[in-house]
Design goal:
Number of helices: 7
Strand content: under 5%
Number of strands: 0
Radius of gyration: 15 Å
Oligomer: single chain
Largest sheet: none
Number of domains: 1
Helix content: over 70%
Structural class: mainly alpha
Distance between the termini: 36 Å
């Protein structure tokens, strides 16, 4: 098994083989959780400052809940509403692939630098979205990227509603 840092780099480089690898590796769930935690800490630090532990805790908690909700919604839509001919998946596969799709979010730590906060958050958001589409495509065994984009687009609305209600 590759070490966590190597996997995070490959996930950030949008290596579809990495997403296939973590999809098939049930032991990668712990690593996916660590990636989600690091990405959320980097996001909080980049937005709130390095020493705002309350904001970091809140951000990590919210991000973990969001990750779980997003995986559930994506699983439901991807395996029922937009199921492909080869779709065979489970919630664990989506948790692992989507967890690694948050790896690019670590660049948000650069938000602590003056004038870079909004830029790093914007770049990270787009980068993570692209990684998410790749993660969904690989986890749901889709043959087309368009179907993965559709799952993400359709799932975003209920995700935001649930997230808004909770937080």
């Amino acid at each position: 098994m590759e070490n966590l840092l190597q996997r995070m780099v490959r996930a950030s480089l949008l290596d579809k083989n990495l997403y296939e690898e973590v999809e098939a590796d049930p032991n990668a769930l712990t690593q996916a959780m660590i990636v989600v935690a690091l990405s959320s800490i980097a996001g909080a630090a980049g937005q709130e400052g390095l020493f705002s532990f309350g904001a970091m805790f809140k951000n990590v908690f919210a991000y973990f809940i969001g990750w779980l909700i997003w995986a559930g919604i994506t699983y439901f839509i991807g395996t029922s509403i937009l199921k492909g001919p080869n779709t065979e998946s489970n919630i664990g596969e989506l948790l692992r692939t989507l967890g690694f799709a948050s790896a690019p979010g670590i660049i948000r730590i650069l938000g602590i630098l003056p004038l870079l906060g909004w830029l790093t958050h914007a770049i990270a958001a787009v980068w993570m979205l692209i990684a998410m589409v790749i993660a969904v495509r690989q986890a749901l065994d889709y043959e087309s990227t368009e179907r993965a984009v559709a799952v993400c687009a359709i799932g975003f609305i209920p995700y935001m509603l649930i997230y808004w209600i909770i937080f």
